[in-house]
């Protein structure tokens, strides 16, 4: 079964080359949604929401929250932030990582986006 947990944090970013020139640094209320897949166990859970929350906060959210994301991901587009999160969480049974840069604007990272040298 698929289990999803969603997080939100504020952070500043800029794209070093957007339509040929650097963007001005600006903030977003970012959202990240992490989906894992596992069988439902005898306790009735496929994956413990609390455990998922701890690991995503520690490995992803706390890296970015209240900071300049460019210090962590040099080109922090929603796409690259999703790739970063996937790699930081790859020990989990991940199925999808989705990152919203703003309302209505998101990038989805799946396994095929990470394998084969495309990352
Ligand atoms: Zn932006």
How would you explain this protein's 3D organization?
The protein has 119 residues and is α+β, with helices and mostly antiparallel strands. The protein has one domain (2-114): 6-pyruvoyl tetrahydropterin synthase/QueD (Tetrahydropterin Synthase, Chain A), CATH 3.30.479. The chain has three helices and four strands. It has helices spanning 49-64, 78-88, 111-114; strands at residues 2-13, 26-37, 94-102, 105-109. Strands 1-2-3-4 form a four-stranded antiparallel β-sheet. The mean pLDDT is 96. The chain binds zinc ion.
Order of strands across the biggest sheet?
A: 1-2-3-4
**Sheet with most strands:** 4 strands, antiparallel
CATH architecture group name:
2-Layer Sandwich
The average pLDDT score comes to: 96
How far apart are the termini? 27 Å
Estimated helix fraction: 25-40%
> How many distinct domains?
1
Number of strands: 4
Assign the CATH class: Alpha Beta
Number of helices: 3
Percentage of β-strand residues: 25-35%
Provide the gyration radius in Å.
15 Å
Helix/strand/pairing class, anyone?
A: alpha+beta
Shape: elongated
